[in-house]
């Protein structure tokens, strides 16, 4: 009865809160978060289940749908869930990271109210708190085009989700203690596909038909290469952008990234390996699933197909080959290419350099010499209630310092609504970096080796660079993006390497509008959880 009352109250609050979106359908989801025994690599572990499943259930939506997601925390520790790639237009209140939301306490619930405004594509949700991501708790998000919006490929015969990534046999709380004691994580024990190890998952296809494979790297430490034995991968979508439909034999997918491929079952009727291998690692990890032809009587055979392992050049060339489909419609009827991002001159350049340090004798990671420390009160709440002492704007420089020193701070960078910015990610380390920006998609206009300079702009792709939310930066290299700051809020910019994120390689970008209008940003939700120095304050009347 209590649950049903809570659901009714939440629905009423959501209608009032999102009344301006009343013309868009509402979809309701319930996610019950529990601990449970899982065996991804054949060893019993304490995993995080969503509705009793690992991975969790898929969230399906159509462009502009309003999603009412009731999350019940049955763990014995606080919990938060975030929505990787969902832009939360005007609504960073629902982002589900510690800088915007109070954790859901054990035995309590919270209702996320969000809209997939002007979005299509492949994304995923994941637990963002306490290194829970290493215990599972993730699932796929599929945002479908509206029925009258043309899609640049025939309707596939089926739609498969592939959630792949590295995995540790140690429980997540053991890994967290490694980090909190000042040590780096050990090397992963293996890879999983949809929560299963070697040949543990099967995709069944009919001969001659074409299927969509949505592949996300949900791991915490390594890039992967994805391929299907004897089959070609036709790239069609990257994190909400339709692409030029290039064909690949294998494809690199970095931490936090999502891609869609069309795969045609055009080979002899038997079973084939679906393969994921680690990239740029001292030891190559491999796992497989099975592509099963429905009329097959022959199991998998032959060697696992080859793919690059540590070579950077082919990965860089492949990344540069990903291009925006200018003539295809995105979430709206007009062609994607009608937005001429390359004809807009950025008003500001921000350069972000990652680095590794020992601070107070412990391993830390930093952005521009600042290693992020979570505050006692979510930044968004502190900003709304004007609570002093939680953070300071400008607490992280917009360019790397000249020295190699680093310090601990709750780092927040200031930015103005409707600015158009150039962000350069500079990586002087010997490992691949993967960067994600909440609340936005951006154009990856260039990437190359060495030091970025203003002359590097001569190599930018100002015509058909892909728009996405997560990008890689190769070792001792740079990646440049263009981004329109058209979404007011407090937005997390982070490493998708979860140990680096946990130990400080992240910060928040406060995109500010002085208008204080619902046109620019939704008000604080009536049912917002309050914690830290915001506890006891009032949100707002209905």
From TrEMBL:
<dbReference type="InterPro" id="IPR011707">
    <property type="entry name" value="Cu-oxidase-like_N"/>
</dbReference>
<protein>
    <recommendedName>
        <fullName>Plastocyanin-like domain-containing protein</fullName>
    </recommendedName>
</protein>
<keyword id="KW-0325">Glycoprotein</keyword>
<dbReference type="InterPro" id="IPR034275">
    <property type="entry name" value="CuRO_3_AO-like"/>
</dbReference>
<dbReference type="InterPro" id="IPR011706">
    <property type="entry name" value="Cu-oxidase_C"/>
</dbReference>
<feature type="domain" description="Plastocyanin-like">
    <location>
        <begin position="33"/>
        <end position="146"/>
    </location>
</feature>
<dbReference type="Pfam" id="PF07731">
    <property type="entry name" value="Cu-oxidase_2"/>
</dbReference>
<keyword id="KW-0732">Signal</keyword>
<dbReference type="GO" id="GO:0016491">
    <property type="term" value="F:oxidoreductase activity"/>
</dbReference>
<dbReference type="InterPro" id="IPR008972">
    <property type="entry name" value="Cupredoxin"/>
</dbReference>
<comment type="similarity">
    <text>Belongs to the multicopper oxidase family.</text>
</comment>
<feature type="domain" description="Plastocyanin-like">
    <location>
        <begin position="376"/>
        <end position="514"/>
    </location>
</feature>
<dbReference type="InterPro" id="IPR045087">
    <property type="entry name" value="Cu-oxidase_fam"/>
</dbReference>
<dbReference type="GO" id="GO:0005507">
    <property type="term" value="F:copper ion binding"/>
</dbReference>
<dbReference type="Pfam" id="PF00394">
    <property type="entry name" value="Cu-oxidase"/>
</dbReference>
<dbReference type="InterPro" id="IPR001117">
    <property type="entry name" value="Cu-oxidase_2nd"/>
</dbReference>
<dbReference type="Pfam" id="PF07732">
    <property type="entry name" value="Cu-oxidase_3"/>
</dbReference>
<feature type="domain" description="Plastocyanin-like">
    <location>
        <begin position="159"/>
        <end position="296"/>
    </location>
</feature>
<feature type="signal peptide">
    <location>
        <begin position="1"/>
        <end position="22"/>
    </location>
</feature>
